[in-house]
Amino acid sequence: MTRFIGKRALVTGVGRGIGRAIVERLAAERADVVVADIDATQAEAVAAAARDSGGTAESLPLDIADAAMVERAAQRLGQLDIVVANAGIQTFAPVTELSTADWDRVLDVNARGALLTLQLAARCLGPGGSIVTIASIQGLLPNALSANYAASKAAVLSLTKSFAAELAPRRIRVNAVAPGRIDTELSDYASAEVGKLTGQNAAATIERRIATNPLGRTGRPDEIAAVVAFLASADASYITGECINVCGGDVML
To answer: Is 149 a catalytic residue?
Structure first.
């Protein structure tokens, strides 16, 4: 597939899991990918892997919560065609014990970082450009054990709609993807942390999630990447301000 020949894409939060899969998919479809992560070594490793697979990629150290660093990145990047705002973190605590420090930390990266990335995209994209944010079904559901993460992803969904409305006259589309449980290191970490708080081991936590999923399984990073690629492409040219839930049906329960 060659939907992105001649297109330049920025993907944030690429060190592993979903971010890495998105880079692989866009590069495989012939996009020129800028691979951005707070960990410069991870960013270069993902970019190098994309190049080794025949793609075109360069790395960019980037802390999306640092406004000055994002500003410098915008100046360096220049014209883009696609921006994928994927970077995010998560912490865990009962809602009654959630610390303001953990609230600030998660909201700074996930909500403030999304805002700054969307603002960068608005500067660097021209007509026909596409932005895809990575939200979460937790932004649609209650989560007493990670309320700060859920709130931050609800903010991502709201920002997606606000930017979609403002950028539509410029013919820039803005959409979101909301993953459910995906087979990544972050999901494994989340299961372990939830298990500690509920008195169950990680395996039992995962089994419970799978048992209640309509499709009866965990998702794969490449399944998220496929939807991101669709939304970023001309195949989704009449879609903006939307969120596609990629969760095996979890949100319909």
So the answer is: yes
